[in-house]
């Protein structure tokens, strides 16, 4: 494999009081790095991660490093697991997030994001974070997707989850339900769908992506009886993209769209808000799903679950979503490079 294709994937360990440290330790017990022929670098406080691994009876096969420069780029290097030490900002009690560690959590994201942007890493995969522990330090913090968009200087990003043979993207993400109708405009929908079309081609090699779009209201508005957003905003946006030759269809009632007879003829679904599309996908694939940020200049994937504070400090957890997120990031990077 060429040097460019063998850049490492970085894995941020997330909220230190949550299950991220144990998930990363479980990851480093596997042979995934060897099978992918790709080194995996876990970012976190090395003493914390090694102590938590020992307490949980996990035996990770990683090598401590202090800089990405310590990983050589020679073609014959055997891929493996590395633990890049990034010290905590404050003491950490398992299961009890400390807002004083917000700079530490954001520092992990900054380190991984910057390495992907400057070409020293292929992709970043994120373990879960605790938003409530970050917002006191970073007012208005909404999550990984929005933070990384700001870090990368991108005004438009799209959150998409993949699992259960589905890809479901969101027109709006982490905002109150009452704010959703006003946030859905022709311009915002057009940009979201354009990002989906572009990235489905780039990262999945689909020459003409097929996207199904839900309505906002029950029964997609019931011909206007249950709302006008479909007539005023969603349908005109779809028609305009169709006129440009894109395979975008809808709006469909969300309560009947997620069934095989529709999904088998599509590549992705665009749902209007968070709890319209994600419950279906998570029911089909929870613990094996992947959260993907579209529209960024880097590859970023994540797990489909939260910090599970009650499970932190044990090994009573499933690392399947983290493994799937790494697989997805690896294949997205390869597909992107093959297209260049």
Describe the structure.
It is built from 13 helices and 12 strands. With 340 residues, the protein is of the alpha/beta class. The protein folds into 2 domains: 1-154 and 299-319, Isopropylmalate Dehydrogenase, CATH 3.40.718.10; 155-295, Isopropylmalate Dehydrogenase (3-Layer(aba) Sandwich), CATH 3.40.718.10. β11 and β12 (300-303) form a beta hairpin. α1 (20-27) crosses α3 (46-55). The protein starts with 8 loop residues before the first strand and ends with a helix. 45% of the residues are buried. Belongs to the PdxA family. It catalyses: 4-(phosphooxy)-L-threonine + NAD(+) = 3-amino-2-oxopropyl phosphate + CO2 + NADH. Its cofactor is Zn(2+); Mg(2+); Co(2+). Pathway: Cofactor biosynthesis; pyridoxine 5'-phosphate biosynthesis; pyridoxine 5'-phosphate from D-erythrose 4-phosphate: step 4/5.
Say what oligomer this is: single chain
The profile of the biggest β sheet is:
12 strands, mixed
Order of helices and strands: EHHEHEEHEHHEEHHEHEHHEHEEH
Structural class estimated from helices and strands? alpha/beta
Shape: globular
Mean pLDDT: 93
Topology-level CATH name of the largest domain: Isopropylmalate Dehydrogenase
CATH superfamily of the largest domain: Isopropylmalate Dehydrogenase
Low-confidence stretches: none
Physical arrangement of strands within the biggest beta sheet: 3-4-2-1-5-12-11-6-7-10-8-9
Q: CATH class of the largest domain, please?
A: Alpha Beta
Number of helices: 13
The tally of strands reads 12
Q: What is the domain tally?
A: 2
